[in-house]
């Protein structure tokens, strides 16, 4: 293997040093948990009776044989397509464990909400907070402490980060993720986007829009665009926390079922092996690999929050500047919608993650001296994740993935990338810090200097668009009081169609917000996750209509062109009264305690100085 790129060496060493104290505290807690955990060998009889009472045919094995017992955390619900397949997983996983002389029990379930359903509505105000609630529910499930390993069943936006954060609290346990896979391909992403923009301009009816959306989202499995859900699956492979090549295998296929059962076999093979525990595998190098995967594939902007929070749950102090600096050397190797026209099924068929990982390894752009959940089987390093699963004589096996791209409009070799950088950049200036996704933004739209148009709510911008107030002018739309403390940091993806229409008409437009823009961030330049937010003393609260703002994705600048003297005497805008749902009060404690976006926007982990 070629020598690791010196920039990756530098950033990793810096991350290790920055995290030395917090990582030591994390391991001290994990080691104490591992030593003090009430195992089945010495738990009280009454305690064990409660754990065994409903085990049925597995009771003898649990009670007498003391074989490994797997705890399953599931995100099943049958309202959401991505999680519906999990309905039948527990019986199959238990049966597989039983066939291997072991046992498995459902330790608990987590909430699983969909930003696609709640987009633009009140539910989005608790969407981000659901990640930390999922982490808590994972901890609750594993707190019974009668398990030797865990299987984590989750796919979508907040579910995977929450599961991993919760599993990190039980870092002495080995754990594998078991994906459900993407739905099969529906209508093209280009056709879907076209109908959305036609609806935004009033040229398509609601019936036409719904018909189009149902053709796009049409069956069980994750959405097929490369948003946060599929970025999650990518990240887990890059971090070595699931079986190789298993991320994008469709539900209800023989290969999917075989991989699901093989996850049980693999979990049992590393059960009670501390070298394969989450605490050991979730380290600085695997976190860096996850970031590299995000950059190389043009993944979701939501992971500038999630991977930071995941890292911090394991005592690792990842920063936006680490991600930005990596982005300067990691080339963009994939174009999957919204960064291209292909969906994840087409990406997978063209070479997929195995090909991308192989290309990065070939140039020393990935940590290869890492252990993964399959190191005991395939050996140390990421070579296993360049392979693909298949059936050999009716049995699941792995073989070398394709050595070349099968469609260079979707995935390219490292000597011919789509772009020399990964398409996620850090913006800095007097407005604070923000991130911008440039992989789908045209070169002629990456720099904009224009007057601000300020909105306190996303609906205000939509109304202004419908009334023609945004026509025939260049502007920077400022949508504030959307941050985690103010409103739970909702996604503002519904702003993409109207802003996209204006951009297509020849106007130069951009978005600046302390909210999110979702894994589907697209062609309109958007400075998102502005930190500090408006409700936390951020200068975004002092912007007025007509102020000139520069958003420069090329040089990493986010600047309000108003004198310091003028800004000093300005009074910050006050958060408007919000007519919202009373059930959101259940998350008031989250809003009151949530940290800054650049530190993961988590209310479970105390912010640190940066």
From TrEMBL:
Pathway: Carbohydrate metabolism; Entner-Doudoroff pathway
Enzyme class: lyase
Annotated PANTHER family: D-XYLONATE DEHYDRATASE (PTHR43661), PHOSPHOGLUCONATE DEHYDRATASE (PTHR43661:SF1)
GO biological process, alphabetically ordered: D-gluconate metabolic process; Entner-Doudoroff pathway through 6-phosphogluconate
Lineage: Bacteria, Pseudomonadati, Pseudomonadota, Betaproteobacteria, Burkholderiales
UniProt-listed Pfam families: ILV_EDD_C, ILVD_EDD_N
Gene Ontology terms for molecular function: 4 iron, 4 sulfur cluster binding; metal ion binding; phosphogluconate dehydratase activity
Cofactor: [4Fe-4S] cluster
Function: Catalyzes the dehydration of 6-phospho-D-gluconate to 2-dehydro-3-deoxy-6-phospho-D-gluconate.
Residue spans crossing the bilayer: none
Similarity-based family: Belongs to the IlvD/Edd family.
One cellular component term from this protein's GO annotations in UniProt: cytosol
InterPro entries in the cross-refs: 6-phosphgluc_deHydtase, Dihydro-acid_dehy_C, DiOHA_6PGluconate_deHydtase_CS, ILV_EDD_C, ILV_EDD_N, IlvD/EDD_N
Domain of life from the UniProt record: Bacteria
Catalytic activity: 6-phospho-D-gluconate = 2-dehydro-3-deoxy-6-phospho-D-gluconate + H2O
Annotated ranges, domain Dihydroxy-acid/6-phosphogluconate dehydratase N-terminal: 67-377
Residues annotated for [4Fe-4S] cluster binding in this entry: 156, 223
Domain Dihydroxy-acid/6-phosphogluconate dehydratase C-terminal: 410-601
Cofactor note: Binds 1 [4Fe-4S] cluster.
EC number: 4.2.1.12
Coiled-coil positions: none
Protein name in the entry: Phosphogluconate dehydratase
Keyword Lyase: yes
């Amino acid at each position: 293997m070629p020598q690791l790129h010196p920039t990756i060496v530098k950033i990793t060493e810096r991350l290790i040093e920055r995290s030395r104290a917090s990582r030591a505290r994390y391991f001290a807690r994990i080691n104490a948990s591992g030593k003090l955990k009430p195992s089945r060998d010495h738990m009280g009889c009454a305690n064990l009776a409660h754990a065994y009472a409903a085990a049925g045919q597995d009771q003898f094995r649990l009670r007498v044989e003391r074989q490994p017992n797997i705890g399953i955390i599931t995100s099943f619900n049958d309202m959401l397509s991505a999680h519906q397949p999990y309905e039948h997983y527990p019986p199959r996983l238990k049966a597989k464990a039983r066939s291997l002389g072991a046992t498995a029990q459902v330790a608990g379930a987590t909430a699983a909400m969909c930003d696609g359903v709640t987009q633009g509505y009140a539910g989005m105000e608790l969407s981000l907070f659901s990640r930390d609630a999922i982490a808590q529910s994972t901890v609750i499930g594993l707190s019974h402490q009668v398990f030797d390993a865990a299987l984590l069943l989750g796919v979508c936006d907040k579910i995977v980060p929450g599961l991993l954060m919760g599993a990190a609290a039980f870092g002495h346990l080995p754990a594998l993720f078991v994906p459900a896979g993407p739905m099969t391909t529906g209508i093209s992403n280009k056709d879907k986007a076209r109908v959305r923009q036609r609806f935004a301009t009033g040229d398509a009816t609601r019936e036409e829009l719904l018909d189009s959306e149902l053709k796009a989202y049409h069956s069980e499995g994750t959405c097929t665009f490369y948003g946060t859900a599929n970025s999650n699956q990518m990240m887990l492979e890059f971090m070595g926390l699931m079986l190789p090549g298993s991320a994008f295998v469709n539900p209800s296929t023989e290969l999917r079922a075989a991989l699901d059962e093989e996850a049980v076999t693999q979990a049992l093979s590393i059960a009670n092996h501390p070298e394969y525990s989450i605490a050991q595998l979730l380290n600085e190098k695997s976190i860096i690999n996850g970031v590299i995967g995000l950059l190389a594939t043009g993944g979701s902007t939501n992971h500038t929050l999630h991977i930071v929070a995941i890292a911090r749950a394991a005592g690792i102090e990842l920063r936006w500047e680490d991600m930005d600096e990596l982005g300067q050397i990691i080339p963009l190797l994939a174009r999957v919608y919204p960064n291209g026209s292909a969906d994840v099924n087409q990406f997978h068929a063209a070479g997929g993650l195995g090909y991308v990982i192989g290309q990065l390894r070939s140039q020393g752009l990935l940590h290869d001296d890492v252990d993964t959940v399959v190191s005991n089987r395939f050996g140390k390093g990421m070579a296993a994740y360049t392979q693909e699963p298949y059936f050999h004589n009716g049995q699941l096996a792995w073989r070398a993935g394709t050595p070349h791209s099968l469609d260079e409009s979707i995935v390219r070799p490292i000597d011919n990338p789509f772009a020399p950088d990964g398409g996620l950049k850090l913006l800095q200036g007097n407005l604070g810090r923000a991130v911008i996704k440039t992989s789908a933004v045209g070169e002629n739209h990456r720099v904009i200097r224009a007057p601000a148009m300020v909105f306190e709510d996303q609906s205000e911008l939509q109304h202004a668009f419908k009334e023609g107030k945004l026509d025939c002018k260049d502007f920077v739309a400022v949508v504030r009081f959307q941050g985690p403390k103010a409103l739970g940091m909702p996604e503002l993806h519904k702003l993409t169609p109207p802003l996209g229409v204006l951009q297509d008409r020849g106007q130069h437009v951009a978005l600046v917000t302390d909210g999110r823009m979702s894994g589907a961030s697209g062609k309109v330049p958007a400075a998102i996750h502005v930190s500090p937010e408006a409700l936390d003393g951020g200068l975004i609260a002092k912007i007025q209509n007509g102020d000139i703002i520069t958003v420069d994705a090329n040089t990493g600048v986010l600047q309000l062109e108003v004198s310091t003297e003028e800004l000093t005497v300005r009074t910050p805008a006050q958060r408007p009264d919000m007519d919202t749902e009373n059930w959101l009060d259940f998350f008031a404690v989250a809003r009151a305690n949530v940290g800054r976006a650049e530190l993961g926007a988590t209310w479970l982990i105390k912010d640190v100085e940066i």
